[in-house]
């Protein structure tokens, strides 16, 4: 350090005694110049499968039986929480004006009339009605939440960060890339799922289907139309 002043970050307190000042300066220089310990070896990170197995083992030790819960949830997701539930709701709304009004007023209660239920934390189901001049689209910018018991588990593209980030800023472009090229006169509204609120889109009934039965109409409704990235 000879031949120049001590850099400001290392300058000692001028009110301290000279000897004390020197020891403070020496320790500061050592702290600045000390190299990190390169001898430490990083332990390999456990695989996802290994971590899952460890968590399941911890639950088993406490008598919680996670395997039974996983199988039960898998059965719900694959057999009961399916897009056909939402299709039934839509077909009922197309054929029953009174039900449609109840659905738009309180979606959770209305789907219950059809024997459909929602998890307790899904406190609200808001049904968004499309019109010839309005297209509603749902997303979850934080993760991939949907009304899973009504429209099924979210597709992979719905969980993708690119969709979640872009659909709220470039909705018309994103929809066009997904095959839905809407003219400028159709307004697009994007709805972001929250912790306790889930959304479902009520599509416009296709032309030429008036008078069809609910069973026939149900077959027309797709998961993409319930999310709002497709029109029927």
Given this structure, which CATH class of the domain at 82-227 is correct?
Alpha Beta
What form results from the Cα inertia axes? globular
> What CATH architecture of the domain at 82-227 would you give?
Alpha-Beta Complex
Q: What percent of residues adopt helix (DSSP H or I)?
A: 40-55%
Mean pLDDT: 84
Q: State the fourth-level CATH superfamily of the domain at 82-227.
A: Nitrile hydratase alpha /Thiocyanate hydrolase gamma
Do you know the CATH topology of the domain at 82-227? Nitrile Hydratase, Chain A
Relative strand content: 5-15%
Strand order of the largest sheet: 1-4
Number of helices: 12
Q: Count the E strands.
A: 4
Largest sheet: 2 strands, parallel
What does this molecule look like?
The protein has 232 residues and is mostly helical. The chain has a domain at 82-227: Nitrile hydratase alpha /Thiocyanate hydrolase gamma (Nitrile Hydratase, Chain A, Alpha-Beta Complex), CATH 3.90.330.10. 45% of the residues lie in helices and 10% in strands. The protein has twelve helices and four strands; from the N terminus they run H-H-H-H-H-H-E-E-H-H-H-H-E-E-H-H. It has helices spanning 18-33, 48-61, 66-80, 83-95, 97-105, 107-112, 148-151, 156-159, 161-166, 171-177, 214-218, 223-227, and strands at 124-129, 134-139, 187-192, 197-202. Helix 4 packs across helix 5. The chain is globular, with a radius of gyration of 30 Å. The model is unreliable at 1-22 (pLDDT under 50).
